[in-house]
Amino acid sequence: MRLDLAYDGTEFSGWARQPSRRTVCGVLEDTMSMVLREDVDLTVAGRTDAGVHASGQVAHVDLPSTVDVDALPRRLARALPADVRVFSARVMPPAFDARFTALRRHYEYRVTDAAFGAHPLRRLDTLAWPRPLDVEALNEASALLLGERDFCAFCRRREGATTIRELQRLAWQRSGDVLTAHVSADAFCHSMVRSLVGALLAVGEGRKPVAWPASLLSLSARSSEVTVAPPHGLSLVRVDYPDDADLAARALVTRNVRVAPTS
């Protein structure tokens, strides 16, 4: 079963279960297990860090065929806390895997350079930046980062995990005093989006040259010069999947071990 869901990450210690901490996965699994009287084990499209939001998260779970799929979102709404909601539930082919059959993930990062800071109604999902930001410089620097690269300079390493990713979109748009970074990739490594944003903000305010973030791609370890942007400006907004007939093939591609590009 595929679940489409959203959450306000402010009061969560990220997606993954952690002892003695409130997490999205923990709340969802515990609530679903109570409602369905079945042990629930969720697989998610992309684990989010503490404080990061999601408006288009996807997870899957194996459940008995006796579960009323159409009624599930309403049943869960009565039991879940107000900061997490399951919008829809639907039966999928056996090859569907929320994580391994995903084609790409789309994130947005919101930041404002207004003199007064973030609007009170958006303070929980918008970073207040104290200096003016140049959107043209941000986009010039962002364009130099696109493609399949080893992003180890922008990632927190995890044992056995690759840092090679294909960054498909990184573009900034300004609407008044709010700038939104649109970031898309086939997958992201730990803290990658927030690290990219942190490096680019240094360019946007004129503290670093346009070519600086891309120059870090030549490093073989995480850069100590990169400041990780705060989590509350980041939201996972969409996950793309192939047609049902292509799910199994996509899972095989995703599970292949990546090697660094030769050029």
Automatic annotation (TrEMBL):
Highest rank taxon of the organism: Bacteria
Oligomeric form and interacting partners: Homodimer.
InterPro entries referenced in this protein's UniProt entry, alphabetically: PsdUridine_synth_cat_dom_sf, PsdUridine_synth_TruA, PsdUridine_synth_TruA_a/b_dom, PsdUridine_synth_TruA_C, TruA/RsuA/RluB/E/F_N
Record's function text: Formation of pseudouridine at positions 38, 39 and 40 in the anticodon stem and loop of transfer RNAs.
Family: Belongs to the tRNA pseudouridine synthase TruA family.
A Pfam family matched in the record: PseudoU_synth_1
Active site: 49 (nucleophile)
Location of the Pseudouridine synthase I TruA alpha/beta domain: 6-100, 141-242
Residues noted as binding substrate in the record, renumbered to the chain: 107
Annotated source species: Saccharothrix tamanrassetensis
Keywords of this entry: Isomerase, tRNA processing
EC number(s) per entry: 5.4.99.12
GO annotation (BP), single: tRNA pseudouridine synthesis
Protein name: tRNA pseudouridine synthase A
GO molecular function, one term: tRNA pseudouridine(38-40) synthase activity
The reaction(s) this protein catalyses: uridine(38/39/40) in tRNA = pseudouridine(38/39/40) in tRNA
Keyword Membrane: no
